[in-house]
Amino acid sequence: MMLSSFLRCLALPAFIAYGLVFQVHELHSAPLKVMGPPGPVTVAMGEDAVLPCRLTPVQSTQDMEVTWFREQLLPFVLCYQGGQYQYQDQMLQYEGRTELWKDGLAEGSVNSKIFDVQLSDRGNYTCFVLNGSDYDEAVVELKVTASGSAPLVALERYQDGGIRVSCRSAGWYPRPQVLWRDPHGQHLPSLSESVTQDQSSLFAVESSIILTRGTKQNFSCWVRHVLDGQEHGSAFYISDPFFRNAHPWIIALSMALVVLVAVLIIIVYLFKIKGKHEEQIAMQEAALRDRDAEIENKAEELAWRRYAVPIEEVKVVLDSDTAHHTLVLSDDCKSVRRQVETIEVPDNPKRFDVMFCVLGYEGFTSGRCYWEVEVEDGEEWTVGICREDVKRKGTIPFKPEEGFWAVGQCLGCIQALMSPCWISLSEIQTPKRIRVSLCYEEGRVSFFSVDENIPIFTFPQTSFEGKTVYPWFWVGAGTRLKVWP
Hints:
Shape: elongated
Strand content: 35-45%
């Protein structure tokens, strides 16, 4: 009967399981409220940034756990717990560069300070506060700016009856605006403009203009920061005889020298900036490269941990009074195997008489907890939880409507015991050790592969109706299961 149920559902799409797994990130409403600033925080590169975060209504946060993180909870930017900073899982680029404003803890302030801000620090930061079982978070956006060099004005060549002049500046972020102005401050239209960006994301801009013949040519080039309006400018003066020069080769030589000097200055500046940033990036990449594999492997489990905090590991002992008469329990009731021969055991209302099942001795009516099951032998097995009032005599359909929430293996494929058909999780490799996670109040049952550190399946949120739920095991032929711890 179980084999036919598995085969009917092997073709169901596995992506449904992933959609359900990632729902664990949802937070429920709680009296704890964390507030961030109304808008982004803007800081110049090289300065210190303060990211505001506070609790409302005002209350002391000295005994709470405060974590600042980027895209995921671990590794974190800053963690303050039990009156001390935590450093074990801190992001490498923030080591020695962050602190919490401790003077504000008594007043509900958990502001984070980042020293010597770099462009790589820009983006969103999450302020996560945990107080017992209550928690909340707020997102703060950090914008980083950089003001570049003073514009370098250079004469390039004769063109279209005038002189082509260029204006160059580098080291800006974000992309700046280039403005040409006449002696009266009026804007002049540019002929062309180009923008480049180096490996450290800093912008370099170049704009050109053609100045025509006149008695005097007095103008300036300004590079403006688009966020704060800060400007760097350079003025230039060309007298009328310059346009009437009868020796174009002298003009060409002079312009070439000016351009050459300008290019050399820009090259020296850019190489200086590039060398500094490449050295910093190389050091960071070398350190981060060693941690990429570990971070990638733990990414999914970290998402679950945000949902599961706090969670308790429980010790599960198997109840021999519920075991089918072909199941043999170890002396410590921590493992079970199925044999062909029947064992003479007394019948009682708790014992499964047809299905090869056994329950844990103790059940749960509240809290968050987990236990792990190791598959030592066998190709067919199922683990999960069931309500205390499930049917124990005769043939039993294993599905949530009947009080069962479980996953198992048949014919080498992992299945989720959903209704009306079981869901095939063909993309999950058969685990040797499975973690069963239960949140009674929220009605969530989740399964994880301890071998791969990834989620297997999470059942839709349900209600246990105040009834006790027990660890549940179905044991296939020749299979041996062991409960940890």
